[in-house]
Amino acid sequence: MVLQARDLVVARGSREILRRVEVDLAAGEAVALVGPNAVGKSTLVRTLAGLLAPRAGEVRLLGRPLGEWSREAVARVLALVTSLDEGPDTFTVRDRVALGRYPHCGPFRSLSGADEEAVLRALRLTEIEHLARRRLGTLSAGERQLATLARGLAQEPKVLLLDEPAAHLDVGHQLHLFRVLDEVRAKGVAVLAVVHDLQRAAAWAQRMWLLDRGQLTAQGTPAEVLGSPACAQAFGVAVHAHRIAGQAAPLYQFSEA
Question: How far apart are CA 43 and CA 54, in angstroms?
Answer without folding.
Answer: 10
